[in-house]
Amino acid sequence: MQDLAFILCYTEEDRKWEQIEALCSRLGCGARRLCAADIERRVGVLAGMKAGELQGVQEKRKAPAVYHQAEILVFVAFSEEKLDLFLRAYRQTGIAPIPLKAVLTPHNCSWSVYELTQELMREHIAMMERRNTDESDRGSR
After folding, report:
1. What is the pLDDT of residue 1?
2. Cβ of 78: how many Cβ atoms within 10 Å?
3. 33 CB contacts (<8 Å, ≥6 apart)?
4. Burial code of 81-117, b = ≥16 C-beta within 10 A, e = fewer?
5. Angle CA 22–102–131, to nearest 5
6. 45 has pLDDT over 50
7. Which of 8, 49, 50, 121 sits most deeply, having the most CB atoms within 10 A of its CB?
8. Angle, in degrees to the nearest 10, between helices 14-27 and 80-93
9. 116-120 contacts, C-beta under 8 A, 24 or more apart
10. Angle 132-91-46 (CA atoms, 0-180°, nearest 5)?
11. What does the DSSP 8-state code read for residue 13?
12. Residue range 115-119: mean pLDDT, rounded
């Protein structure tokens, strides 16, 4: 796997991709744009790992025949400081948000982009439900 911090990104918006790519260049990290054909590829392989380096390789869940891939950012080889710097600069630059974000880990590197996206969507929905519950609890006091 590469030592350089870089991002795997899926977006259909050319302008957003150009903004993300420019931000990565400015911050000294790389960027790779994923395409629809990458949806069922393993995230670790897309990040440059060899298949033998993937832990816990299991049978991949296939994406449904009619599936629209959500936007996603996957951070590869980012230190905590570099990740914080990137996220702060992303907001300050005014790039439209991508709510699904992940850091490549030994746990998720063997997942397909589809599987990672599904997990992030579940987590995002659960977080939004907790936030809504917390807000309604505060409002009823």
Report:
1. 43
2. 19
3. 9, 10, 11, 17, 21
4. eeeeebeeebeeeebeebebbbebeeebbbbbbbbbb
5. 110
6. yes
7. 8
8. 130
9. 116/43, 116/72, 116/74, 117/69, 117/70, 117/72, 118/61, 120/72
10. 95
11. -
12. 94
**84 lies in some domain:** yes
Distance CA 136, CA 141 (A): 9
Q: Is residue 1 part of a domain?
A: no
In a domain, 114, yes or no: yes
Q: Which domain holds residue 33?
A: 6-139
* Total domains, the chain: 1
Q: For tokens 């907790």, what's the residue?
A: 130
For 61-116, how does the pLDDT look when each residue is reduced to its tens digit (9 = 90+)? 777 777 788 999 999 999 999 999 999 999 999 999 999 999 999 989 999 999 99
The pTM (predicted TM-score) of the whole model is 0.85
Q: What is the pLDDT of residue 59?
A: 60
Residue 102 lies in a domain: yes
Radius of gyration (C-alpha) of the chain in whole angstroms: 16
Q: If 0-12 CB within 10 Å is exposed, 13-18 middle and 19+ buried, where does residue 60 land? A: middle
